[in-house]
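Reviewers of the previous submission asked for a worked example of the structure-prediction workflow described in the proposal, so we include one complete record here. The input consisted solely of the amino acid sequence. No template or homolog information was supplied to the procedure at any stage.
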Amino acid sequence: MRSRHSESTQHALSLPAPSADAKALSAALVEEVRRAIDDAGGSIGFERYMAMAMYDPQFGYYHNGSRKFGAGGDFVTAPEISPLFARAMAGHCARALKELEGGDLLEFGPGSGALAAQMLTELERLEALPGRYLMLELSGELRQRQHDWLRTSVPHLADRVEWLQALPAQGFTGVVLANEVLDAMPVTCFAVREADVLERRVGCDPGGAPAFREYRADELARARVDGITASLPEPLCDGYCSEFNPAVDAWVRALSERLERGLILICDYGYPRREYYHPQRRNGTLLCHYRHRAHADPFFYPGLQDISANVDFTAVAEAAAAAQLDLIAYTSQSQFLLGSGVLDTLELVDNDAERLRVAQEIKLLTLPGEMGDRFHLMALGKNYTPPARFSLRDFRARL
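From that input alone, the workflow returned the following structure tokens.
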């Protein structure tokens, strides 16, 4: 899905203006949001707003036909920066598939299809192709783009690919890839005011535009925030605003129920809980991307921009334990790639210009100021023990 490498901006007013057609599409989505708000009595949860803005079947960001990925879209993904990311992933997938004596590979949210094409190419080189390469994609428009990409880039392997719109049946054996999937799940927003927990819902401002409105949180949300606070070294300060992902438990549990034996690889940007809810992060982690500009206004032209939130990897680890999955590894993207031998790639290049290009790709993927320390990889397993370590350093103790 979304490995960000974007220019930051302070507010929506500095963003490029969309076309007239794009504005009309966004206006149609806003009308749907207004109707939902009216039908709900004046407000809807932010998770519902985010779901509409991102996944509405007609006007949502991932369904409306706008360009998302690459230089002409709103962000680039790690596979679009370089095939080095896929090669590292493929190495671990190949070992897992051989250890499992076969199996399938399931990729969530395959985006442009770039990761799938690169994974298939590398797995073929390693003589470890999966029985099937399954792609779980809900957007018909993106499925077509993925199909076209694969038919163009790896035509001899494209018939191995199958598209799903729901999780496979129970008994799945193989590897599951979730590259920047959890950050796109709708989140619940909250605020701490005078030692009370308020839910930041979505209503309409005097001009009719979607805007945050705060209400006393229900018992479920309060219990979730109380649980977060209990695991922190100090209480959240007055005025602290953040979010949590209400769907992560069900997502992990559903995976575990269907996985008979295998490996789950999750790569995303986020933090362990103590870092996620750090006092310096008092405005939360909501992040929007529009034409390679990053900003924090989720109400800027709904349907035309990506909306995401960082991942609380402690919550993922807790969900995995509850679902009887083993926590195999947790590390940064830089440590994962370095441990997978990404620097060895330079020794295989004998052209100066090519070596310079590869070196630049490695920097973008591994340096702390780029993607190296902002993105993390978590490996979960079921009835499976990995034959090799996943990284130079393991950060499970930070969870």
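The radius of gyration is 21 Å. We consider this example representative of the routine output the project will generate in years two and three.
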